[in-house]
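Researcher: Please predict.
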Amino acid sequence: MKSLAGYVAEIARIEQDIADIGEAALSVPEDTERLTKYVYRRYQKAAISGDLRALAGVEALIDRAIPLLANPGDLYLLKANLAFKFHRLADVGAALASVEAMYDSRECRMIRADLDFQHGRYEEAKRAYCDVLDAEQTWDGLARLAHFNFKMGDAEGADRLYAEAEDLLTAKQMRSYAWLEVQRGLLDFMQGRYDQARDHYDHAEAAYPGYWLVGEHVAELLGAQGRHGEAAAILERVAAAVDRPDLEQALGELYDLKGDAEIAHFWKQKALAAYLQSAQDGHVHFYHHLADYYVDVAEDGAEAVKWARMDLGLRENFSTQSALAWALHRDGKMSEALCWIDRALSSGAVEAKLFFQAGAIYMASGDEAGGRTLAERARSLNPTVDHFHIHH
């Protein structure tokens, strides 16, 4: 597919639309199309650019707009999607419940399936994805099922679904194509297939130049290849454009690997301050990053356990179960760590990181044979499972 416009050009078009419509749309409620378009374009700009602060502002904008519309169903769907991005899953359900007439629409059913997956209801999630796709094949539905399949061990099937999703796109949907290519690259990356991953990332960049998401994943790949200086240079450019503390943490870890302790300390402390400020402000979407930070960067088991438990309280699935297990392992609570990692393993998820951590926990608990078996399974899925990665 040939690029029609890149990231910068699309953001510029969205900004022009926002300026042309103007916030005055909120004071002319009878022009529902103009009001809805204004909200959507604000949402698109924030979402595409990865600006979490702007997304929070859009949420407030939606709350102002909903009472002005006779049929605000589309805005409730947008509200549900925003709540999902911020990991406030109870709010997702509340927003969906507010659109009774649309509750069984394709969009609502997909979001409900996403909720099932996040809450560890895996069979229900898969059934819902398949049911919706049986009724209508859409690229985003195929992508959801692809993600599910990969997490459950079918990497080849996941890639096929991503390719099918690409085939459904039009020549104008370059950003969606680039996003799908990044997902396909991530599949390869998580199997240690670095050359194939880079090919997909290059395809994404060619289709939709300048997309920060591509730069983030290229930097991750270079870091895993031991090219820490190149990775840090790219990630610094991305972090300058996208205010994301997880990228700042990754920069700190890269500079540690590069041997620049002072610069590493700066980036890690910057990331931690942003995580903690977000939590202090009442937001929950960085809980899992705080758990990761205290386990792998600060090596503070007690703090890691605190944040991992809070994250698991929002959504219990194999990912949050294994994160709590890993935090308990760091905190020396091996019996409880073993219990939680077994729960994660019983989910049926097939993920190199999960088996790698399970192997370490088993060995630390005295089960050398079981630990070695799990570690070998991890490396069979991804021989580079212990290389650098960004905590997505």
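Model: The CA atoms of residues 91 and 209 lie 35 Å apart.
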